[in-house]
Amino acid sequence: MPRGWILGTHAENRVARRHALIDAARRLYAREGVETVAMEDVASEAGCTRRTLYAYFDGWEDLCVQVFLEDLDHRWETQRHANLEAEDGVAALRTWAETYWQFAREHPESLHLQSFIDYHSIDLEQVGTEARSSYRATVDPVVETLQAVFDRGQEEGAIRADLDRDECLGQFAYSLRAIMNRVLFPGESFASFDPDRFVGSFIDLFIRSIVTSEES
After folding, report:
1. Residues 185 and 98 in one domain
2. What is the C-alpha end-to-end distance of the chain, expressed in Å?
């Protein structure tokens, strides 16, 4: 029996098997990098056949998206609870960024996978029906909560009213991911820096750029 699988009802077994396959892919992404991992590698890591793997995922892109969605769900559960405790919109936005960084430090392979998806334009039409429906169900609450946080900040008069919400949040999210990716996967760099300070200073810089003069 492939590693991580259990005996139970048919539905329970299918869920457990799917999670075991996702875990196998995640381990390989962490060790080898998502770009180099093929479906046969995942099957070998999970101790199953390619045929079994394809019974759960429509293909390589489908598997990538489902690993990403499981990671995002895990990250967002932490961020959502932290945001609920923030005292205002600006504090909630800062909390979102800081908890994202904390998660990325603990799960750098998840950040690498999201960056890969960002810049290699995985086509959702190439993934299975389950992944497409899960994508919207997982991503939309994250986006909607961030939009609500930004709206709250503008309504409170703390975030500049002249800023376009979606444009600003897109810039923030993509820039933060790029900064974190650079820190966690540095390669050659012209300067040495402390990771927490480097990411924290970027968050401070961005927050200062969007708050009203009264807040700054």
Report:
1. yes
2. 60
In a domain, 177, yes or no: yes
Query: Number of C-alpha atoms within 13 angstroms, CB side, residue 90?
Result: 19
Predicted local confidence at residue 113, as pLDDT: 87
Asked, for residue 215, whether it belongs to a domain, the answer is no
Phi-psi region of 31 (alpha: psi -120 to 50; beta: other; left: phi over 0): alpha
37 within some domain: yes
Q: Total domain count for the chain?
A: 2
Give the closest residue to 68 by CA, choosing from 118, 105, 106. 118
Closest CA to 147 of 174, 165, 168, 173: 165
**Residue segments in the chain with a per-residue pLDDT below the cut of 50:** 1, 5
CB 180 within 8 A of CB 133: no
Q: Is residue 105 part of a domain?
A: yes
